[in-house]
Write a structure and sequence with these properties.
Blueprint: H1 2-12, E1 19-21, H2 26-31, E2 37-39, H3 45-51, H4 55-61, E3 63-71, E4 77-87, H5 88-97, E5 104-106, E6 110-115, E7 121-125, E8 129-133, E9 136-138, E10 156-167, H6 176-180, E11 185-190, E12 193-199, E13 205-212, H7 215-220, H8 228-238, H9 245-253, E14 259-265, E15 279-281, H10 284-287
Parallel strand pairs: 1-5, 3-11, 9-15
Antiparallel strand pairs: 2-4, 3-4, 6-7, 7-8, 10-13, 10-14, 11-12, 12-13
């Protein structure tokens, strides 16, 4: 989470700051998190954690040398890569614990930022206006509220749509995961379709199913997004026919609550952006790919 990482670095540098959070609390934020795992690279993420004086705490919760098994549609392993892995919510909690709660305004969704005549910039939330900021950093992901100051171009749908669900101990297919995935990650892919199993720190798995889905079809089939059983049956018929049964069984048995994740990216045609000295962007807000 780049915004919280920046907040931690500002705290260590003695620079005053405020974090505006749309979620009402840290608990609610974790509940709505994608809960996927993150691979922390030694030459990128670890450098930031070291600068934030959080590397030791990070080392105590990270899972070292976790394999990502890469397979084809029949479940045959084609390759594997390894890296240090951590649940996104665990990294987020590590960063949240490192900054005073008084610096976070929970339940303040930012609507837009506005440059003022005196050279400062004000932050407009749902219920109030906070003026006289010297710098605003947009770090609110794919749909940041402050980007209209630098570009009017919005992220474009990539044509890939993911659906995610949790597989918990006690679920029908859970016993298959330890033998097939273990405490690792597993990615099966073929012709733009993907089945990704993320092993999480609490022993559960996050199932991510990715398919090519035109935007027009997304709108046309919007109704099935509210019915998990119908959705999974549709995916099996149209997207995963011919795949190994051990893989499609994960989809078939995951008729529980799921989340819809259409993937977007920032079009190159939006560049160059307007330069505003009092505003900048960070993370996905700056380079959504």
């Amino acid at each position: 989470p780049p915004g919280l990482t920046l907040a931690r670095l500002l705290r260590l540098a003695g620079i005053d700051y405020i974090v505006f959070e749309r979620d009402d609390s840290a608990r609610f934020s974790n509940e709505r998190s994608s809960s996927r795992t993150l691979v922390i690279h030694k030459d990128l993420g670890r450098v930031a954690l070291k600068e934030a004086s959080l590397l030791e705490e990070f080392q105590s919760i990270v899972r070292h040398d976790v394999l990502i098994k890469i397979a084809d549609a029949q479940g045959t392993i084609q390759a594997d890569i390894s890296g240090d892995s951590i649940d996104r919510k665990d990294l987020r909690n590590l960063l949240l614990d490192s900054i005073p709660d008084t610096r976070i305004r929970w339940g303040y969704p930012v609507q837009h930022a506005q440059k003022e005549n005196d050279g400062s910039i004000s932050v407009h939330t749902t219920d109030c206006v906070d003026p006289w900021f010297r710098l605003v950093v947009g770090a609110d992901g794919a749909w940041p509220k402050v980007t209209k100051q630098v570009t009017l171009t919005e992220p474009q749908y990539s044509g890939i749509h993911f659906f995610t669900a949790f597989i918990q101990p006690g679920d029908p297919t859970y016993s298959s995961e330890p033998s097939m995935v273990g405490k690792e990650n597993y990615l099966a892919m073929d012709k733009g379709r993907q089945i990704f199993l993320h092993y999480l720190g609490d022993g559960s798995y996050l199932l991510s199913v990715g398919v090519k889905l035109p935007d027009s079809q997304t709108v046309k089939n919007a109704a099935i997004f509210h019915d998990p059983l119908t959705l999974w049956e549709s995916l099996l018929l149209t997207g995963f026919a011919g795949w190994a049964q051990e893989l499609t069984e994960f989809i078939k048995s995951s008729a529980s609550h799921f989340r819809s994740w259409p993937l977007h990216s920032t079009p190159e045609t939006s560049l160059p952006w307007n330069s505003i000295p009092v505003l900048t962007l960070l993370g996905d807000a700056a380079h959504l790919t």
